[in-house]
Amino acid sequence: MLVDSHGHVSTKRFDGDRDEVLARARAAGLVAMLDVGCDLPSSRASLALAERDPLVWATVGVHPHEAKEVPADFLEQLRALAAHPRVVAIGEMGLDFYYDHSPRDEQRRVFRAQLELARELDLPAVLHVRDAYGEAAEIVDEVPGVRGVSHCFTGTAAEAELYWRRGFGVSFTGVVTFKSAEQVREAAKGVPPELLLVETDCPFMAPVPLRGKRCEPAHVVHTARMLAEVRGEDPDVLMRRTAENALRIFGISLPA
After folding, report:
1. Are 204 and 175 in contact (CB under 8 A)?
2. How many CA atoms lie within 13 A of 210 on its CB side?
3. Each residue of 167-215: pLDDT tens digit?
4. Residue 256 lies in a domain
5. Residue 254: inside a domain, yes or no?
6. Is residue 115 part of a domain?
7. Cα dist from 228 to 26, 156, 242, whole Å
8. Considering its fold, how many domains does the chain have in total?
9. Which of 138, 146, 205, 224 satisfies CB 3.0 to 4.6 Å to 174 for a cystine?
10. Average pLDDT in the 149-160 region?
11. Is residue 255 a part of any domain in this protein?
């Protein structure tokens, strides 16, 4: 039992074999996956895929890279999309001070606005944070009651604690399998069991032993096995628990 809590199967990288990718995900034991919006067009594409395939659930949001491009009515458009029952979160949203593709003040503005929308709609927020964990946590504190997940976590153990102490899930990708990612493995050790999640962020960051290939949801099993190894846990137990965590955090009910 597995859930890929963050991926992008609705993107063009999967246009040639999307149905086969989702079939492989099912064969690998996935019971759900989240297809994540990064701007308004990709949010619509995520929802369209979730409407078509019951394995998939959608999130809608604006990535910090796209903050400079948002129209004045972006919140109204996100609110309308989020009314659909297959939409289970707002995001991905946040701060990316590594690439700085959008001015930082615009990143902050769009981040705060989406956190407020997530709180208004009582939906979890999917956070993208890079080189800005401290400031992003401070902005989260400006919106009391908001909840969610810090996705693709790549920071230190202390930075992970900023999020799990606030009740946010902390999700790990194939990066945790990379030889150079000892810091990320150390961070993973400290996350409380009930707040640990796994994801692919596909098509990016395929885990070892598939590094360099296009990542897909079925590959999340490799990340889960590495997390179990570094945490000293049984892999089957960790897979089930992280799946249950994702279903709970995102409010997903599976058919009997």
Report:
1. no
2. 20
3. 999 999 999 999 999 999 999 999 999 999 999 999 999 999 999 999 9
4. no
5. no
6. yes
7. 21, 18, 11
8. 1
9. 205
10. 98
11. no
